[in-house]
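Chapter summary example.
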Amino acid sequence: MKRLLSLVVAALVGGAVLTASPATAAPALSRESAASGTGTGFWHAAGAQLVDATGAPVRMTGINWFGAETANYSPHGLWSRNYHDMLDQMAALGYNTLRLPYSNQLFDSGSKPVSVDQVQNPDLQGLTGLQVLDKIVAYAGSKGMRVLLDRHRPDSGAQSPLWYTAAYPESRWISDWTMLAKHYQGNPTVIGADLHNEPHSISGGGGACWGCGDTATDWRLAAERAGNAVLAVNPDWLIVVEGVDCVSGTGDPQCGWWGGNLSGAKQFPVRLSKPDKLVYSAHEYATSVFAQKWFSDPAFPANLPALWDHFFGYLHKENIAPVLLGEFGSTLADPRDKVWLQELMKYAGTGTSGMSFTYWSWNPNSGDTGGILGDDWTTVNQAKQAILQPYLIPPVGSGGGPADPPPASCAVTYHVDNTWQGGFVATVTVKNTGSSALKNWALGWTVQSGTQITGGWNATVTQTGQQASAKAPAWAPDLAAGASVSIGIQATGPSTGTPGGFAVGATACTT
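The structure predicted for these 511 residues follows.
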């Protein structure tokens, strides 16, 4: 059954939000669980168990952070917060894997990331969509997290029932995947490819099928073509294959959620050149998303385990292949939603032997489900987090990304150089007091009431409301450790008073 997402820039009202620290840490887990959560090197399957390069069991207990698949061409919320801060919070809460959606349109030359605040995220300014993903991947790796790339849709407009459209044919779908496989080759932070999000049928006929044998519509055959093409250029990656919605001849119910029905894989399994790289993925949602008939069954919630066995759980129980619950989520608006989520987590199991999962979503602006974050993009929804928390295995060690960068540090001085009736010239000097260079720096601050900046030099100076920013000039994008730069500004308004709130990115500067 279809599931519609409201992927919009404006935050939508989600579930009840309780005030909590954004850096609430996950509880301590057993030494075995913590040590082997994300493991070492690349992953593969041993039956239904994911293992790392040493053979140690590993498990994704992750989160979805969407936006790069939309017309923003970057993860949402970067208009509000620094991406390091976002990933720090995810890791602190215990999410060890990031499922990162994108669209093929992201890689078109005309697709430029938008709604990325230049003060909060100075090092993302002017980057392509892929370069923004690179930054996310690099910092996630430094936190010990792993990243699963999710081709969410062909274009930024909407989901597609098939893995191709007229504008983005199968050849483009595969060529973009092989490009990404080469691009991230050798980087174990990126563990695999979720080939296509939520293939599904179309009301009245058409759309995706499983095992029907038609190369134009059989998702299982298409997944084999794309998966084997990826493995030919990057044999280290996991190949994640979602279900469809409807599969006839496999028992009741024949239809479930988009991407959620893997019952056809028993008779028609996906055949890869490297069978131990196959992971099946199912999507599962609550009654507040859509009132599926099983939610009104008098046997609810006792009917759920058999339902899940039918759709995807048999693959795990019969040791056929690993299963990833790639999307599941709820506003918790209906009392049955909480019961459903508690039962699903129990079904998935605890420790590294349980099914992998990536919760939908980090973002508060999913119209179906809301997010782990509240509408302020900072506060944690504790009602949801409390249900997930016992099953989370926090990231430990490095997933292969670079080491944590040294903390940024800066100092600012402000001096009025010249005044006249109705205006003035001033100099803002920023010094890098940290131990590493400030890359593509941008300084933000709050101007005095009544002041309007009309020009600047030694930086690109702009003002919106009372918020001003000075972005590093193209000829000197970095500020070395210990170095200073003086930024000239010309403004109208009173020269008295002192601006405040000086910060480089999310780092407040001393004055």
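To summarize the output: Residues 210 and 264 are 6 Å apart (CA to CA).
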